[in-house]
Amino acid sequence: MVAWTDFERATIKDIFSKIDYEVVGPAAISRCLIVYPWTQRYFAGFGNLYNAAAITSNPKVAAHGKVVMQGLEKAVKNMDNIKATFTELSTLHSEKLQVDPDNFMLLGDCLAIVVASQLGKDFSPEVHAAFQKFLAVVVSSLRRQYY
Amino acid sequence: MRSDNAEAERDNTSAERSTSTRCFLQAATMLSKREKDLIKEIWERLTPVAAEIGADALLRMFASYPGTKTYFSHLDISPNSSHLLAHGKKIVLAIAEGAQDISQLTVTLAPLQTLHAYQLRIDPRNFKLLSHSMLVSLACYLGDEFTPVAHAAMDKYLSAFAAVLAEKYR
């Protein structure tokens, strides 16, 4: 079980209460597809991903960004058992979607950068570190069902 | 590091440049002219606040990746310490200098390559951690101006920078 300090718990809940899922989710996914273009391999059915402008305005990308945020919200609501919360999602990513789990942190890093530009100075090194820890736990849980 | 030694080393090693450096120099030249101009412009803008940005990136790295602190036992790395600000400034100014002419990275970084390989011997996996922390600092400082295109260009540049820095390790 992950040991969260009071600061970390409060910080994660605070971040997720402040950010706009409709903005952050789509921005993080599109950044991932732009900065790490090989991740586009998993989104062949999404239509036009030809350049940054196309990706940023692609409605399927935006919709998927919101799906990701909803998934993360489940983890925020169950911080003491993120492992169990993501068992099904982990199996899905491993067996059906066949996503290389090394890619999970690429999206995580993009999420950190989007949240950073939203929160500016409020995203202090300590707040940032709590967020990275949260992302690491989420990524680890998503990796668990791979074999 | 005497400059004549650096020159001799450059002549000797240019013929046997490793595959990884060749690949990353190709990656650096995979930066379009627009990307190179963008990178150069951003670092020129940040040079006046080099200490602030550098210290911020270091603090983020130490907080998120505590193992990185092991390389700094000889410095006071508490927030706002003069050591932290001086060191942060050094790092940002080196990155900014490289950005002036990305095609010459191996030449510009030759002394730093030797320093990191023979004296500091920082595990190169840590370079990625500082690069990510630096990108977050840029995002906080530049906000919306740190567009996906700028982010992609900067990520590529910092990867190339790190690869060149590690070239003399083995």
TrEMBL record, chain A:
GO terms for biological process: hydrogen peroxide catabolic process. Residues 3-147 form the Globin domain. GO terms for cellular component: blood microparticle; haptoglobin-hemoglobin complex; hemoglobin complex. Keywords: Heme, Iron, Metal-binding, Oxygen transport, Transport. It holds the Pfam family Globin. This is Hemoglobin subunit beta-like. One of its GO terms (molecular function) is oxygen carrier activity. Belongs to the globin family. The gene is LOC109201900. SUPFAM superfamilies: Globin-like (SSF46458). It comes from Oreochromis niloticus (Nile tilapia).
Automatic annotation (TrEMBL), chain B:
SUPFAM superfamilies: Globin-like (SSF46458). InterPro entries: Globin, Globin-like_sf, Globin/Proto, Hemoglobin_a-typ, Hemoglobin_oxygen_transport. Residues 30-170 form the Globin domain. GO terms for cellular component: blood microparticle; haptoglobin-hemoglobin complex; hemoglobin complex. Residues 1-14 have a biased composition (Basic and acidic residues). PROSITE patterns: GLOBIN. GO terms for biological process: hydrogen peroxide catabolic process. Residues 1-20 are annotated as: Disordered. The keyword Transport applies. Keywords: Heme, Iron, Metal-binding, Oxygen transport, Transport. GO terms for molecular function: haptoglobin binding; heme binding; metal ion binding; organic acid binding; oxygen binding; oxygen carrier activity; peroxidase activity. Belongs to the globin family. This is Hemoglobin alpha embryonic-4. It comes from Oreochromis niloticus (Nile tilapia).
